[in-house]
Design goal:
- By secondary structure, this protein is α/β, with parallel strands linked by helices.
- The protein has three domains: about 140 residues, HUPs (Rossmann fold, 3-Layer(aba) Sandwich); about 140 residues, Alpha-Beta Complex (Argininosuccinate synthetase, chain A, domain 2); about 55 residues, no CATH class.
- The chain has 13 helices and 14 strands.
- Strands 3-2-1-4-5 form a five-stranded parallel β-sheet, sandwiched between helices. A five-stranded antiparallel β-sheet has the order 10-9-8-13-14.
- Helix 4 packs across helix 5.
- The termini are far apart.
Length: about 425
């Protein structure tokens, strides 16, 4: 990066990005514009904004992106049913492209040609940020201090010592048990005793939710209503996206719902272990899944599972702004036109399941499904259906028998093949 550049810094207010500000000024004489995105993480944003200025930033900006995050990133992912490796609800992965978009908007408005982030060279976020930024404005250059040969710091101790020297207001200590990322959808935990996969994660890791053992001894029910695949009401009360997700987070957290402990395949090629708390999101995903079972036809539902897996991979791998993602979203939106209705969810000691569902677009018919006599389904019709359905297999078996010279023994009461080991 050349000297005297104006740069936009993805600023969290944490130790790393706070130390980056004076370092960029010392090393590159940079004019630093610190941008913090409020995606719902619990922070004192007035303090963060002031801290950036005291750390040496020329300008400090805090952007509230919560509603846009939910409506334009979380809801499309819910509608897709996208879950990375059948477990991770993509809390961090969904937030990064939106943050990148906001950084680009600020850089364009401020006339800055560099965006700086504090991601390490081992994580997924460096790829998500930079890939998104290149897709949105390829003229903007990227700079990652942790990957720079000039970056002199190797530990938190180094960063704390440097920050004190530069009068950066810090509250961090050397001890940091877990690396965490939080937003309104989830919180992730990495590091500490999680680095050994044989260690069970400790109860003190929980931030959003109680443990299942601490949850109430009786189940709690909550109803979630959807319109075209998007949750719009809880227990019959219409809510905006922030209010709705906050409400479900509170209910699910109290019942220990939504905590997973997984080994995942990072984009950069290594495996990592993480504990994720996604309380309200887990309820929403499970309710949406149950509603789709009620409404979608078989072929659409089965094919949509393929789309969901690819959608999750693209999101996880930082390709939110890719042409394929746009195409998948169009497909998903088409499938959600009639995904409207209400699901009653049962929450109990960490479990979350659909207890009942209803929709004006339901394809379930009690008249069709009943085992009793009805005027709709003629059971004798199944004979012809089975004959046609099994015809390819029957022809294959006949041809195989002809090749092997197998013949029927008509003298037996049961018609079996002499060559079969099942002859009685």
């Amino acid at each position: 990066m050349e000297k005297g550049a104006k740069v936009v810094l993805a600023y969290s207010g944490g130790l790393d990005t706070s130390a980056v500000i004076p370092w960029l000024k010392d090393e590159y004489d940079a004019e630093v514009i610190a941008v913090c995105c409020n995606a719902g993480q619990k922070e004192d944003y007035d303090f963060i904004k002031d801290k950036a200025i005291k750390s040496g930033a020329a300008k400090s900006i805090v952007l509230d992106i919560q509603e846009e995050f939910i409506t334009d990133y979380i809801w499309p992912t819910v509608k897709a049913g996208a879950i990375y490796e059948d477990a991770y609800l993509l809390g961090t992965a969904m937030a990064r492209p939106l943050m990148a978009k906001k950084l680009v908007e600020v850089a364009e408005a401020e006339g800055a040609y560099y965006i700086v982030h504090g991601c390490t060279g081992k994580g997924n976020d460096q790829v998500r940020f930079e890939t998104s930024i290149k897709a949105l404005n390829p003229q903007i250059k990227m700079f990652a201090p942790w990957r720079s040969e000039n970056w002199p710091f190797e530990s938190r101790e180094d960063l704390i010592e440097y920050s004190k020297k530069k009068n950066v207001p810090i509250t961090q200590t050397v001890e940091k048990v877990y690396s965490r990322d939080e937003n309104i959808w989830h919180i992730s935990h990495e590091g500490g005793n999680l680095e050994d996969p044989w260690n069970e994660h400790l109860d003190d890791i929980h931030v959003l939710s109680v443990t299942p053992e601490q949850a109430p001894d009786k189940p709690e029910y909550v109803e979630v209503t959807f319109e075209k695949g998007v949750p719009v009401a809880v227990d019959g009360e219409a809510m905006g996206p922030i209010e709705l997700l906050t409400k479900l987070n509170k209910v699910a957290s109290a019942n220990g719902v939504g905590t997973i402990d997984i080994i995942e395949n990072r984009l950069v090629g290594m495996k990592s272990r993480g504990v994720y708390e996604t309380p309200g999101g887990t309820v929403i995903f499970e309710a949406h899944k149950a509603l789709e079972r009620l409404i979608l036809d078989r072929e659409t539902m089965h094919y949509k599972k393929i789309i969901a897996e690819k959608f999750a991979e693209l999101c996880y791998n930082g390709l939110w702004f890719s042409p394929l993602m746009n195409a998948l979203m169009a497909f998903v939106d088409a499938t959600q036109e009639e995904v409207s209705g209400t699901v009653k969810m049962k929450l109990y000691k960490g479990s979350c399941s659909a207890a009942a569902s209803k929709s004006d677009y339901s394809l379930y018919s009690e008249e069709f499904a009943t085992f009793s006599k009805d005027d709709v389904y003629n059971q004798s019709d199944a004979t012809g259906f089975i004959n046609l359905w099994s015809l390819p297999l029957k022809i294959r078996a006949i041809e195989k028998q002809n090749r092997e010279g197998v013949k029927l023994d008509e003298t037996l009461e049961r018609k079996v093949y002499k060559s079969s080991e099942f002859v009685e």
